[in-house]
Amino acid sequence: MRRASVIEKDAASIGTLKDLTNVFESLASTQVAKMKTKVLISQDFFGLLWERYTSLRIDPARRITNRDGVGNNGRNAIILISAEAGLSGDLDARVIETMVTDNDLSKTDILVLGSHGASQLTQRGIPYARFFKLPESDDYINVSPVIEAVLPYERIVVYYEEYVSLGSQIVRSIDLVSHISDMSKDYEEGTMTDYDTIFEPSLEMIADEMEETMMRLALSQTILQSALAQAASRFNAMTMAEDRAGELLGEYKLEFHRAKRSESDRRLREVLVGMKKKRREAAAEAS
């Protein structure tokens, strides 16, 4: 049995770990609330942008999904959104497994967002065409370089983690171009055309710019959703770690008391043995 002093020292270390996990749990909870707010704001902004866009032409959905003159390199693109660091639990591994199962990677170029996803792909021997580091701050996410990189592709599929609830996160994939049309279903379409309105520099150029902006916004929303899922996953991991630390503290407490009793019993036996020895010695001297 270990000595009580050693057990007490180990218990103090576990107590410190429990305090740290509690702090990280609180930080993750704050991040979840913050990211949920950002997702809602982004959705509201898309609604405003779509209302402006639909006022430019009668059938905007057809124009977006056709993407005339764009996407003609004969290949598909996958945008893999992962964590920048390795604190997302098994989410990134699950996203990669789903991506590999769903696709023929010989006909697809992979673009990775986040260092952890790039590292995971390298470990699995899966090549990727481009890597983009996620910004340290989520105040502004510039996805323009990613959009420029994927515009030549016929089909653009995004794989990411989606927040369902604090205790549940799932892997999702979306066709980025079709997703824009799906996002627009709740908004009314207008009928403004260049027959009754003057557009400068031109209606086509304005529409092109707005369409690219909506693609950037749709991708930004998936990045926010992924960050939200990762924050929830970190919260769950820290909650589990804190609970486990609490269980270990309880086990150490029982072990400490057993060790203390054992040491007390041993000292008592030593005292009794010493007293018996002294009595024998005293008796021997008396005789």
What report would you give on this structure?
With 287 residues, the protein is an alpha/beta fold. It folds into two domains: 57 residues, no CATH class; 215 residues, Pyruvate Kinase, Chain: A, domain 1 (3-Layer(aba) Sandwich), CATH 3.40.1380.10. It is built from seven helices and five strands, in the order H-H-E-H-E-H-E-H-E-E-H-H. The protein has a five-stranded mixed β-sheet with strand order 3-2-1-4-5. Helix 4 links the parallel strand 2 and strand 3.
Count of alpha and pi helical runs:
7
Q: Give the DSSP E fraction (strand runs of 2 or more residues).
A: 5-15%
Largest sheet: 5 strands, mixed
State the shape. Answer: elongated
CATH topology of the largest domain: Pyruvate Kinase, Chain: A, domain 1
Distance between the termini: 43 Å
Mean pLDDT: 77
Radius of gyration: 31 Å
Secondary structure category:
alpha/beta
The CATH fourth-level homologous superfamily of the largest domain: ATP synthase, F1 complex, gamma subunit
Low-confidence region ranges: 58-63
Please tell me the total number of domains: 2
Tell me the number of strands.
5
